[in-house]
Amino acid sequence: MSTDRPVYMGPRLRRLRRDLGITQANMATDLGISASYVALLERNQRPLTADMLLRLSRTYRLDLAALADDSGGETTARLTAILKDPMFADIDVPAIEAGDIVNGFPGITEALLRLYTAYREEQLALADHGAASPGYSALASDPVAEARRFLAARRNNFVGIDDAAEALAATLAEAGGLVPHLKARHNLRVRRLPADVMGGAMRRFDRHRDEVLLDDSLDTASQTFQLALQLAYLELGPAIEAPLAGSHFASDSGERLTAKALASYAAAAIMLPYAAFARAAERRRYDVEALARQFGASFEQTAHRLTTLQKPGDERVPFFFLRVDPAGNVSKRLDGAGFPFARHGGACPLWAIHQAFRRPREVITQWLELPDGQRFFSIARSVTAGGGAFGSLRVERAIALGCSAEHAHRLVYTQGRPMEAATPIGVTCHLCHRAHCTARSAPPIGRTVLPDNYRRASAPFGFADV
Description:
By secondary structure, this protein is α+β, with helices and mostly antiparallel strands. The protein folds into four domains: 10-70, 434 Repressor (Amino-terminal Domain), CATH 1.10.260; 155-271, Orthogonal Bundle (Arc Repressor Mutant, subunit A); 309-427, Beta-Lactamase; 433-466, no CATH class. The protein is 42% helix and 13% strand. Strand 6 (320-324) and strand 7 form a beta hairpin. Helix 2 (24-31) packs across helix 3 (35-42), helix 6 crosses helix 7 (95-104) and helix 17 crosses helix 18. The chain is globular, with a radius of gyration of 26 Å.
């Protein structure tokens, strides 16, 4: 008895046709079949025969192995991850059913994925709008908020960019690095010039002289990142632009900032390729300093990259990331761990990220407990930007990297740190209802402040019981 099974490749055939930029009628003419038969093949209503596979291979000069490559597993993993959202908690969807949907109804699957992404963007936009101060109606067109919502809705993970950057990183390894590759592939020479000659630029692409110019006061990790960023613009344009397709921005600045963030994502993915970096992260138990040394990156670059390790089917510890200056201003915020960041204003003053400025370059560990009982583990450390020469401006910032308590045991930093010793913090004072917090700077929304004519509590504000 024959054990051969019919082969259905409808979604892959449709993707191939779209990649080639042709219609069903064009493909039918090329293959010598009817347009209706192409439609049946794409809808998985007819199997793809060996003869048809050979026709495809000869007509479009395809590698049969590449055509047979199935991305259904990745799509199934994406759909399964979405179905874990709390809004679907009461719906039991077995993994096998998710696979059936992906394989049998690829169009419906893509529609669901797009719809969920749009839902997440709107949910984050609503959170921003609700947290805005009265009278501040321009929030919807805040370009920084737009870019943050875009990244958060996608959990700061872009598989297409990671895959393209990983392939490019392999090419760089064969070429001997970024500088030889830029010379061999693009005929570009790399020159390092003094800051006063660069005129305030860290990197400049001189098309006329075929040169990439770098500020020679940059440290090695920063120079590498700038070269990787330039290479991303030169070779990874389609992968960077793909996530933007179909997205709507309230302002041109919002779209440009998002594109800039995606290009930086690509540069980091070139320096720290997904598969190699993810394996190393697990092996070293997410030791940021050790990983930074292994990959020739900075502490901040490495911590930032750890937030992106959520590739469907190959997820690692989900992290959140926060960067603040000494005044408490938040300059970068990324969330892959479900941490309820304050959309506006600073972080809780009891969080160790604010102590990092008093303990330079020291990794400070801390268990955190939110008012609703959620627990997280975080590390904080100060980082320096700029400098590199006497008199050069240095900017001190502090970053925090953390994850939920359920994943903390996988981190090297939790050794000897019992979870019971948690610091009670709030998202922001306006949303924190811990009445006896002596670090409070503002009363929480909805609580009535008591007068202090006869009694002054140790906390800055006294509140009525109801």
